[in-house]
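Supplementary Text 2. Reproducibility record for the structural model of the 383-residue chain.

All settings were left at their defaults, and a single model was retained for analysis rather than an ensemble. We include the record here because the model underlies the residue-level annotations in Supplementary Table 4.
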Amino acid sequence: MKRSKNFEKRKKFIMELLGDPLYKPMRLREMASLLQLDKSEKKELFDVLDELCAQGKAEVDNKGRYSKVSGKRRDRRKKKDALKAEKQERGRKGREHKEHEHEERHFSEKDGTIMEGTFIGHYKGFGFVEVEDQEQDIFIPESDTGSAMHQDKVQILVRNGHKEGKRPEGVVLKVLERGMPSIVGTYQSSRDYGFVISDNPKFSKDIFISRKNSMGAKDGDKVVAEIVDYGSRNRKPEGKITEQKPNSPTLAMNTIGRHISKMVYTKVMTNKSPWLAEAKLGGVYCNPASHGEGRFVADEAWLHRLIANGQVATQYVDDKGNVTMDEYWNPNGSYMAIEGITSPDGRILGKMAHSERRGEAVAMNIYGEQDMKIFESGVKYFK
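Retained model, structure tokens:
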């Protein structure tokens, strides 16, 4: 979320204005006119007021007029909000109980075969379940997906009597294990709440975000939303915007302490990502690297998780294709020689070497294949 350097100063100024004994509650338009603000400054004023309201320092009435929240009113408001939150939590648990009872279905052997598998969502709402050792996926109509979401482990009933030549059809009985505790998406705001629309179209349900859980996100922001309530067939899942944690993987300064610019060799470790679909699995590619902060760092738990999930896309290798921590081949000192990683679903690929910097007259005297076919893979995927 971009802010001007004077954002905090303007917040302080607006708080002083709202607290002035002569101040009378004003609408945004009236306040902007009083302060003689241009269009961009008016937008920032809205952001300032919005944040002050989210922090409980200001409030807006049903006519859109802003005023300062006094100490006593703030205490009453906190108490009211706490009681409201408690009531909402009781209501949520009650709904979950009723929904669970409503969704719980009982079938006998004559209705079909019970199986377990992984739910694969579709942007139109229906889905498929991949069952191990089954040649065909099981089709799940939208009305029978229950609260299942993309990548969930589910128990399903495969109905008897499907026609030859058609995909077997089933119904989700229950979710055994959630597959995606958080999603990356775009925040869409409303006055008192917002939604996160996943970047992955297979995750077809928008995530409801209450104002207190939005962390000040603005319309169009790219965010990470942690799912706190998976909802049901008739109720959207709920979540909260999260920040990067202290142990989250990140990029740090190269071990040599300065910018590096050289050709590097990387090996493709997975073809899980659609961006690497046309690359040779286990193939070694030579591309230029140019950066000062390209050292991938993560704690041991994260490294094992990335490897187990197949998210380590590429690693630095020597001229014989061996993964190495040698500074000559792994010039920034990345942990486990990791050069590129993907999102859990593979749709997002991040890497340090510049695979786009290639051509017939580029690095002609350098040994090795340079074309990882990233763009061809992407075009083929989106077609």
